[in-house]
Amino acid sequence: MTQHTGGQSGTALVESPDGGPMIQVEDLHRSYGTGAAAVHALRGVSFEIPRGELVALKGRSGSGKTTLLNLVGGLDTADRGRITVAGTDITGLGEDGLLELRRDRIGFIFQSFGLIPILTAAENVGIPLRLRKADPREREERVALLLSLVGLGDHTQQRPGELSGGQQQRVAIARALANRPSLLIADEPTGQLDAETGLAVMELLRAVVRSEGVTALVATHDPQLLGFADRVLELGDGHIVEHG
Ligand SMILES: Nc1ncnc2c1ncn2[C@@H]1O[C@H](COP(=O)(O)OP(=O)(O)OP(=O)(O)O)[C@@H](O)[C@H]1O
Ligand SMILES: [Mg+2]
């Protein structure tokens, strides 16, 4: 299933070989603040996502989508409940384990692209490979392959400011794939794009889920993007209200 080699040793994040679900979430709770001012963003969320699916996460503003993505991606820790990613219980991981999870297993895509302005498209895509100290030749080959996969083979030397919004998001998708993650997490990836460009980015995400064999969890407001998903989860009132 995973093509991850990484060249890293001693990782605690061994992919479970059983082909079980990519994500298992059980009775997840996360509140912000205390006392009367507390906001209960998640109040017992449970669901499973099979491997290789593109799953959309919808729900009105403030329903907890970003909160949930941050927990699944190891950017935040839950108050209660359990999250398993590719067979690893990540709720039991410390800071080092979470760092390793984010670096080696998960690709993040954000609404605001998150590219580094002074670096070229190719250099941006290469960042995760540099962080894991990949061989420079391997890095250059993978960067070229990924940029051509996202249709930017002719734009590798342009900086983010010299690219359109849709092209910038394509660079961000290529970067998210650099370390051959098992899981892509995208928070409103089309939120800053016009409708047509948003559709194209969603189509690309769907294509890479198929071609790279990754699983993707994508929060979106946009009803026209839900059709790209294999499954839609809806958050409301701190719970999953719809499974379909
Ligand atoms: N760091 C924080 N401190 C306090 N409250 C927070 C924090 N982050 C989120 N919240 C609250 O938690 C709830 C869920 O927020 P979250 O950002 O997860 O919603 P969302 O579904 O992503 O919304 P949107 O669609 O607007 O992005 C909201 O009521 C929000 O105000
Ligand atoms: Mg959000």
Ligands bound, unique = adenosine-5'-triphosphate, magnesium ion
Beginning-to-end CA distance, first to last residue: 25 Å
Structural class: alpha/beta
Please state the average pLDDT score: 90
Low-confidence stretches: 1-12
Structural features, described:
The chain has 244 residues and is α/β, with parallel strands linked by helices. 30% of the residues lie in helices and 25% in strands. It has 6 helices and 10 strands; from the N terminus they run E-E-E-H-E-E-H-E-H-H-H-E-H-E-E-E. The strands form 2 sheets. It has a 6-stranded mixed sheet, sandwiched between helices. The radius of gyration is 18 Å and the shape is globular. The relative contact order is 0.20. The N terminus is likely disordered. The protein binds adenosine-5'-triphosphate and magnesium ion.
Give a topology summary.
Blueprint lengths: L22 E10 L6 E11 L4 E5 L6 H8 L7 E6 L2 E2 L5 H10 L1 E5 L10 H11 L4 H14 L15 H13 L5 E5 L7 H18 L2 E5 L11 E6 L2 E5 L1
Parallel strand pairs: 3-8, 3-9, 6-7, 7-8
Antiparallel strand pairs: 1-2, 1-4, 4-5, 9-10
The chain binds adenosine-5'-triphosphate (ATP) and magnesium ion.
The site of adenosine-5'-triphosphate has 12 residues, from strand 2 and helix 1.
